[in-house]
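Batch 3, record 17
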Amino acid sequence: MADDESLLTPAMEAVIGQDGEPADVEIAREVVRRMADALDEDDPAILAAIKGDDPRALVPPYALITMVYFMEQMNIPDLPGHGLLAADEWRYSAPVRLGDRLTVAPRIADIQERIGGRVGHSLFVHHEWTCTNQDGEEVVRVRRTIAYYPERGDSE
Amino acid sequence: MTARTYDAISEGESLPTVQRTPTNFTVLKFIGAAWQWGPQFFDPQVAHRMALEGPIVPGPLKIAFMEQFLRRWLGGAGTFRHIQLSHRRPDYHDAEMSLGGAVTRKYQEDGVPLVDFEIWIDNAQGERSVRGIATIAFD
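Prediction for the assembled complex:
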């Protein structure tokens, strides 16, 4: 592929602004506990919340990272090579508790082409997820930008 | 851990730098908890094909580190309103990362005291791998 050839295809442009299928996920004590272990959490208050008896204990925002598996990256046709995370933005609007049941709604906010920069000619895909709890209250809105660029050897 | 009050925070104040060195084991535990098995996080061959020097530290792990960094400095005070990280270059397993930050603004919005931070991660070569901002509410 010539370097000046656009990576952005009509099929990609067609998915900009599309919503995906929502997914449901629970903020489960055991998974949050594993996350805290991975982070070497040493805050006594947080450890008490995670290991205590309160099934609805308040937990830190990183508990929401346990749901990223359910933050489906909607299928986009024709993407080149692999993607690397370029930016992440989390806007919190309500506290997170153990046992929260969240509905995660995905959307492709935008796709932009970039020439130059660290990864060279690439596509920047902006995903958005809105997560609401069992009471219909928005808990967090996540915007993630992933840079897609041709894999090493793709043009050889 | 003493909770830091809004009044005790000053604009322009720097947060003491904290070092973290995520090992291969740290990353595996994290991607296991988050169920994010991107091969670039553990497979050197895949990382090389992606023009990376080796398996990388996942971006969401760096978000979690920055949250911990701020929360520890705040002594557990305040609640997160917003955090945004721009990943400028990859961080690799077993490489020391220096987490830093500074208070950029104190203000009130709808009667809620807020503090904005500039936050960053520098790699062992002194290069800034992550730039970001965060807002904490004292409500």
